[in-house]
Amino acid sequence: MTLSACGGGGDDSGASDTVRVTLVNHVWTENIRKALPEFEQQSGLKVEVTQLGEDQLSDQYNVKLNAGSDDIDVMMYRPLQEGRLFAKNGYLADLTDKAKENADFDFADFQDAPVSATTYEDKVVGIPIITEQQVLYYRKDLLEKSGFSAPPQTLDELKAQAIKIQADNPGVAGFVARTGKAAAVTQFSSFLYSFGGDFVDESGNSAVNSEAAKQAYAFYGGLLREQGPANISTDMSWSEAMAIFTQGQAAFYPEANSLYANATDPSKSRVAENVGFAPFPAGPAGSKPYNIPSWGLAINEASGNQTNAWKFIEWAAGKEQSLEQQKTGTPGARTSVFENPEATSTYPEDMAQAITVSLANGVGHDRPVVERVAQAREIVGQPIVDAITGRDAAASADTAHEAFQKFLDDEAR
């Protein structure tokens, strides 16, 4: 591999052959660190890595970026959690010219949905490196026992199969999913899109009380209330829902593909041999699961070493490294890599097929695209909890709409 010259300008007032990179604890990071000697030898640069947990990473960014510190060159960040806030505050350098003028980097190779989340006001401010798609986990043995020859292709079939399997297997829930007010929002989003809704409309106003949204809230909550585990709690995140599924207590579980090893590893799952994966079932608007960048790479606008920072990014997010990452089970955002059979050779075959559907129909966000994401999730997640507990989902959606619209108006000021 040769490193090409980067396109576009950049602040090089503090140019240095040492690139300071801040990364999160992740398999992607471990893989990159192992490959760094190759990059350093080819580029003549030295990479200084700071590796932190998610909370520590957020704390450091909050302090250093707000202070305009220039001691971070490259930053690993969450485009859908803090990307909009960072971009609005001017923390992220404009990478548009660097990305699009470099033919070898081939920016057009990145999928549209993840790129939409790393773009702000028509400027490329980040490069997606790790993606997630929602798929349907299911128990092959339970489907066979109840006479189903294939997993559900529609949400209506999902409900029908969940009802039948639950009736045939006392003590086993037909369906399990995240239930926590904020935690459930991301997985609920695919239901929302597949019913034809979204969190905001094309004008940027709240859409959580649209007819499609009300139907999605009622469906998701009703499925958990009627076909979910007995005495279901309303504070489950992925770990609790996954535990129910892997202990053999549920037939269907919609979740991010990035967590699949928890279900297929015999040391973690009692049902490992019987777990199957299917594309997200189609709703009235079709199958529209999310396809999101969970992590991206950006350059600190305050960095004086932006040209060399970009050289690191074009290597770390290049085709060769993306392929190596995907072979270890870390999905990227490059179309060419997903089309390479070698990239998905380590995945279960049905998982690879399910991901293909998500890539074709995927939506680039799994939560409201706002600055104060945590607060927004609390608002739009309340109707989920209300639907699970048997309250009027439509009335709750109307209440959430009023609160969310006020939230959006406040952010726009």
UniProtKB/TrEMBL annotation:
Q: Which Gene3D superfamilies does the record associate with it? A: Periplasmic binding protein-like II
Which SUPFAM superfamilies does this one have? Periplasmic binding protein-like II (SSF53850)
The record ties this protein, via InterPro entries, to: Bact_solute-bd_prot1, SBP
Q: Which organism is it from?
A: Micromonospora craniellae
**Would you tell me the protein name for this molecule?**
Sugar ABC transporter substrate-binding protein
